[in-house]
Design brief:
The protein is an alpha+beta fold and 191 residues long. 43% of the residues lie in helices and 15% in strands. α1 crosses α4 and α3 packs across α4. It is elongated, with a radius of gyration of 33 Å.
Length: 191
């Protein structure tokens, strides 16, 4: 018979960390939290080959609804096992609750989203025939005395004629940026 490896969580001889008492308790808590997880590790594994065979069969039998929880649990138990090497043994109840929380969060993120309502496209009011419309806007950076402005000119069909953007520095306040954008718009239309 092959030799057992010592479990870093419990100090007992065991072939797998998921078969030791600490992880068994994690599985029990996960099931008790209403996750619907039904599969549990077997009590007796005699060799690494039996462990591998059981793991492959077990993962093959896991229902789709249990797969997220199962994989999240295996991953976090592996992380906890690695941390236990440095003598940082995590409380199994806390770890199980953390696993269930992360699984729920994962399912929420992956849940199908309802289709978004079609956004109505905003249309500008068109000027009378023979006229043009000039839109100008200014903005100020909160963190400095710098800002900018933009100008768009359209004809009576709403067709684009010309546009410009400008950098303003220094600025006194947002109204200063708006006024400079309007001034830039008048300069663009005159040219």
């Amino acid at each position: 018979m092959e030799s057992f490896a010592r479990c870093v969580w419990t100090g007992r001889n065991c072939y797998s960390q998921i078969l030791a008492s600490h992880p068994r308790h994690i599985w029990e808590v996960i099931r008790s939290l209403g996750t619907g997880l039904t599969i549990e590790p077997p009590a007796n594994i005699r060799s690494p080959r039996e462990l591998l065979q059981w793991m492959l069969e077990w993962l093959g039998r896991v229902h789709d609804s249990e797969l997220d929880t199962t994989m999240m649990a295996l991953y976090h138990m592996w992380l906890s096992r690695n941390e236990a090497r440095d003598k940082q043994i995590e409380n199994p109840d806390a770890l199980a609750k953390h696993i269930v929380h992360l699984t729920e969060e994962w399912r929420i993120i992956r849940a199908p989203k309802p289709p978004k309502a079609a956004l109505s496209r905003e249309h500008c009011l068109l000027p009378r025939v023979g006229w043009t419309k000039v839109n100008a806007d200014g903005a100020v950076a909160k963190s400095s005395e710098k800002g900018g402005g933009g100008v768009v000119v359209r004809d009576h069909h709403g067709s684009f004629l010309v546009a410009a953007c400008h950098f303003f520095s220094p600025l006194l306040d947002p109204e200063d940026a708006e006024l400079r954008a309007c001034h830039a718009a008048l300069g663009l239309v005159k040219s």
